[in-house]
Automatic annotation (TrEMBL):
The keyword Transcription does not apply. This is Glycoside hydrolase family 3 C-terminal domain-containing protein. The chain crosses the membrane at residues 966-991. Residues 446-524 form the Fibronectin type III-like domain. PROSITE patterns: PROKAR_LIPOPROTEIN. One of its GO terms (molecular function) is hydrolase activity. InterPro entries: Cellulose_deg_GH3, Fn3-like, GH, Glyco_hydro_3_C, Glyco_hydro_3_C_sf, Glyco_hydro_3_N, Glyco_hydro_3_N_sf, Ig-like_fold. Keywords: Hydrolase, Membrane, Transmembrane, Transmembrane helix. The keyword Repeat does not apply. It comes from Gemmiger gallinarum.
């Protein structure tokens, strides 16, 4: 009896444990299943799982085809174009005869960065480049012998410990984690005797002694990493310097190179403009310098080709390179400032969460430099010094600017002749021509840049209009010219390029009365000198060099014209002020922010401003869920859920305004629209009612990548957007675009989050690597060509970040204060060119606010300019606006309100969370105005997808039916199994308890 009792007791204990265990597992599985189902969109993307099945597809219905028969052919072409891209974009800054290196030269690669080249920026450009050649491999491939002792020292020896921190990239928002961490000179040792050297490298334990045998040249790599989420620091770096100046270890390393080598060649592996005084400092003895940007997968091969002369460099700088970057007026107050009444704990007012979230919601930034960004500042103030005007002070151009915008050397020389310019009234454009002749001894390409100068008049001064001394308005690149060969380059400059925006009186684009100059120049500084020479100025007036008046053309406009360019050439819509609310005066804050003016350089120099968010500003900062309908609206609800027999396959190739769209849209349900709009995270959702497939959309400023969605597959990382712009070659950029389009077509993707179009407002922006340039015209033209190439393969691009996302510090919902001329001429111009000339289908909004209004809720931006003035028919997506995997983001992204965004013209939210879809269904269903806005957004998305490669295989008869993904079935089965087991264990436990009670009762009766 005692033994049986023990068995009964042990049975109860066993099933008690099992019941609790499986109950916990069952509960965990149920919760996990619920969370997974809530994030089903993200899970499906990560697992590449289909949630639908297609019927009646047609293999012959191919609207966009790859240019290649195999992946091997595609990747071989990618490699070829990627190498050409760096070959034409890398900029030769200096060459005292050190380059090209002779075949068989023995070289030493100095710096830890030489074994850890930066290939991509971080965040959205993070592409797997593990198959990229090392610098050593690239150099050896072109016949150079690379110092193995030094290489091993960095890779496996004592030098391996000096790595950039944190690792490959930047910890988001953590500037303190920045470390260049170059190897100190002391770690290399000291020279041993010549007899030891003669004995062979095997006997040498001192690294520095290996320099003698590999002493033809030192190739020194200087790298800087930048990326999404944080700006670079100046004046607050860990060792007291700034990130874009050389660290002490780098200075010592260059001095060591100067002592040990006859030739010192520097590779600048950075997309943020370094302070370049060291290149001409005798202490460092730099003989040649090549800016190489971020090299992508194959760019180092081109760098090696340039070093040995297989490729003649032809790139031109996309930024002004200075001795001291802090001379830029945009750096005053560059890092965001908090409103003086900001209280991070007051989330009801500020919708902010600690440690991230809407980190900019209580912050502001003031674009006090106005239009004077990059060369527009440096060259304009220089001209005013020469002309003795504008209270320019003691500004000394030569001590400030190391290399001007557009600068770049070659291994050959070119002569320009036969400059001519004519105006054609019929096309309202100028034809600028110049003949380029290769007068050197090797073949090469030359870039011709055309700049204009417009008059700075009394009308401008009275109305707050600013004018740069020169602005880029055209460029072209020759074919490869053999020695002695010539090519006549003709560049068309529409007269509209000469306009400026008058936000005060005309409130539109005007063409001032006065004299305009057009000049063909080698760089921006050359352009100013040419114009000054045409005006009669010389070096005696303080010019840095004599200009060439023969390379200029003067055009006189008799009277101010405020009519010709007041309507859009793209759409015919009236152009007028849209951004008055980006100024503090709009909110009643007077005399706080002064915009830099060339009428008084010293008197209007930017100052750090302190600003309190008044009630009017706070009201616009906190629009979340305040939409309660349109007063007096007579809008009717649209038809939804009809059965018209339409499919998206029927709409392929049809115009945006085709009447069949209404029949199709009538079939869509409210819930489907809410899902399509509210959950646009890296996809557009399927729609069963019209048989619309889901799409794959993902990142790609340097080529298509799905790293952020957990997928590593990619074909090629191309060099960064700085290198792309530095080619000054629109034909090459269109081919780069086609390569990216082919890559995406092969990988089954339809939408690209890029190109990125913001401006290098200063050298310190964390995302300068994915923005083309400091110049809006160059950025727009290069982007337009790349976009044409990408979209030729049925890929729709989301040009980003629209707009004013020119800083990463506190960028999420930061208030950006700027005047309309600045916004239009500097920051919107690249987007305008990309849409009107490149045909960009989509935009991705920025986190930034125009004044206090989030970009996505700014109707002037999203509807009146983007659609009204520019004519974009595709759709607008927010920047990241929520993911159910991150609970804090439910609060964090509240300012991206779905109602206000839709009413303004935003169409889709980059989110996989339920928040926005739920808001539409639970808060706004039944509102006719908002429902009509949802229908319009749905129209734009469906139109874009209908004309993309997502429709390959679809015809009018193709149907989509819903299927349950395998992982959902697996989770359901797991829940059921665990539930059943839990119940069985509980049943067993109950039975065991009952048996024990029965046995106990029987035993008691027997006694």
């Amino acid at each position: 009896m005692e033994s049986k009792a023990k068995k009964k007791g042990s049975g109860i204990a066993l099933f008690s444990v099992l019941s609790v265990l499986f109950a916990v597992l069952f509960a965990a599985a149920c919760i996990g299943t619920q969370l997974a189902f809530a994030s089903s969109q993200a899970v499906n993307i990560a697992l590449q799982t289909s949630t639908f099945a297609t019927k009646n597809t047609d293999d012959e219905a191919v609207y966009f085809e790859s240019d290649f028969d195999s992946v091997e052919e595609l990747e071989a072409h990618d490699k070829e174009i990627a190498e050409q891209l760096t070959g034409e974009g890398a900029v030769l800054l200096k060459n005292d005869g050190a380059l090209p290196l002779a075949a068989g030269s023995k070289v030493s690669t100095l710096s830890h960065s030489s074994v850890d080249i930066v290939t991509c920026g971080t965040g959205s450009a993070d592409i797997d480049t593990s198959n990229a050649p090392t610098l050593k491999e690239a150099l050896e491939e072109v016949g150079l012998e690379v110092n193995p002792v030094l290489w091993d020292f960095y890779t496996t020896g004592a030098g391996k410990d000096y790595v950039r921190s944190p690792g490959k990239g930047v910890s988001l928002g953590d500037r303190a984690a920045w470390h260049i961490n170059e190897v100190p000179v002391s770690a290399y040792g000291t020279n041993v005797s010549a007899s030891d050297v003669a004995a062979g490298l095997e006997s040498i334990t001192d690294v520095r002694s290996s320099f003698a045998q590999y002493g033809d040249a030192a190739i020194v790599t200087i790298s800087r990493v930048a990326g999404e989420g944080a700006d670079l620091e100046y004046g607050d770096y860990t060792d007291g310097t700034n990130v874009l100046a050389l660290t002490q270890e780098e200075q010592d390393m260059l001095k060591m190179a100067n002592e040990e080598f006859d030739k010192v060649i520097v590779l600048i592996n950075s997309t943020n403009a370094l302070e370049c005084g060291f290149l001409n400092d005798p202490a460092y003895g730099v003989d040649a310098a090549l800016w190489i940007g971020y090299t992508g997968t194959w760019g180092l091969n081109a760098v090696a080709d340039i070093l040995v002369g297989n490729v003649n460099p032809s790139g031109k700088l996309v930024d002004t390179y200075c001795y001291d970057n802090t001379t830029a007026p945009g750096l005053v107050g560059y890092y965001a400032q908090a409103y003086t009444n900001f209280d991070e704990a007051d989330t009801a007012t500020w919708y902010s969460v600690a440690n991230g979230g809407l980190d900019g919601n209580g912050y502001y930034i003031a674009y006090q430099e106005g239009i004077y960004v990059g060369y527009r500042y440096y060259e304009t103030r220089y001209e005013d010094v020469v002309m003795g005007q504008g209270n320019a002070g003691d500004y000394d151009y030569n001590s400030v600017v190391a290399y001007p915008f557009g600068y770049g050397l070659s291994y050959t020389t070119f002569d320009w002749s036969g400059f001519s310019t004519t105006y054609d009234a019929a096309s309202d454009s100028f034809q600028v021509s110049v003949t380029v002749t290769n007068t050197g001894s090797v073949a090469g390409k030359e870039v011709v840049q055309v700049y204009f100068q417009s008059p700075y008049t009394d009308y401008d001064k009275a109305n707050g209009i600013e004018k740069a001394s020169v602005e880029l308005c055209g460029f072209d690149k020759t074919e490869t010219l053999e020695p002695g060969a010539s090519e006549t380059v003709t560049i068309t400059v529409p007269r509209s390029e000469l306009t400026c925006y008058d936000a005060t009186t005309a409130k539109t684009y005007i063409l001032d009365a006065g004299d305009y100059y057009l000049t063909a120049a080698h760089d921006a500084h050359d352009a100013v000198n040419n114009v000054l020479a045409a005006k009669g100025y010389t070096v005696e007036n303080g010019m840095t060099a004599a200009g060439d008046a023969a390379m200029t053309y003067k055009y006189t406009n008799a009277a101010l014209d405020a009519e010709t360019y007041s309507v859009s050439a793209a759409t015919g819509a009236e152009i007028t002020n849209q951004f008055d609310n980006a100024s503090l005066e709009y909110y009643g804050v007077e005399d706080t922010m002064t915009t830099l003016s060339r009428s008084d350089w010293q008197g209007t120099w930017p100052q750090v401003i302190e600003l309190e968010a008044n009630d009017a500003i706070l009201a616009d900062l906190n629009l979340y869920q305040t939409y309660d309908g349109v007063d007096g609206s007579t809008t009717e609800m649209p038809t939804m859920g009809a059965d018209n027999g339409m499919t998206l396959g029927m709409m392929v190739g049809k115009a945006y305004d085709d009447p069949d769209w209404d029949l199709l849209l009538d079939q869509v349900t409210f819930e489907e629209m809410a899902e399509l709009i509210g959950k646009g995270y890296h996809n557009t959702a399927r729609m069963l009612s019209v048989s619309k497939p889901a799409t794959v959309d993902d990142n790609g400023p340097q080529g298509f990548t799905q790293t952020l969605t957990g997928i590593s597959t990619c074909h090629c990382a191309y060099s960064d957007e700085n290198i792309m712009a530095a080619t000054f070659n629109v034909e090459l950029m269109e081919e780069v675009g086609r390569c990216i389009g082919n890559d995406m077509l092969d990988l089954g993707a339809s939408g690209l989050y890029g190109p990125a179009m913001n401006i290098h407002r200063t050298a310190y922006s964390g995302r300068n690597f994915e923005y083309y340039s400091e110049d809006s015209f160059l950025s727009g033209k290069i982007a337009a060509s790349e976009i044409q190439g990408i979209q030729s393969k049925g890929v729709y691009v989301y040009i980003k970040h629209f707009a004013l996302n020119d800083t990463e510090s506190h960028c999420r919902c930061i208030s950006t204060w700027a005047d309309e001329q600045t916004i239009r001429e500097i920051y919107l111009e690249p987007f305008r060119i990309a849409v009107t000339e490149g045909g960009a289908k989509n935009v991705m909004n920025s986190f930034a606010r125009f004044g206090a209004t989030w970009s996505g809720a700014h109707k002037g931006l999203m509807t009146n300019v983007l659609r009204g003035e520019w004519g974009m028919t595709g759709f607008a997506l927010t920047d990241f606006s929520g993911n159910s995997q991150f609970a804090a983001y439910g609060i964090m992204m509240k300012s991206f309100d779905v109602a206000w965004g839709l009413m303004a013209g935003t169409d889709s939210w980059d989110s996989s969370a339920e928040q926005w879809t739920d808001d539409l269904i639970n808060l706004y269903q039944g509102d006719p105005d908002l429902t009509q806005a949802m229908r319009q957004a749905t129209h734009r998305i469906l139109y874009t997808v209908a004309n993309s490669n997502a429709m390959n295989g679809f015809t009018a008869d193709t149907r989509i039916v819903s299927v349950t993904p395998w992982w959902q079935i697996a989770l359901i089965v797991l829940d059921v199994v665990l539930g059943v087991v839990t119940v069985l264990c509980i049943v067993k436990l109950v039975l065991a308890i009952r048996r024990k009670k029965a046995n106990t009762s029987a035993a008691q009766k027997a006694e």
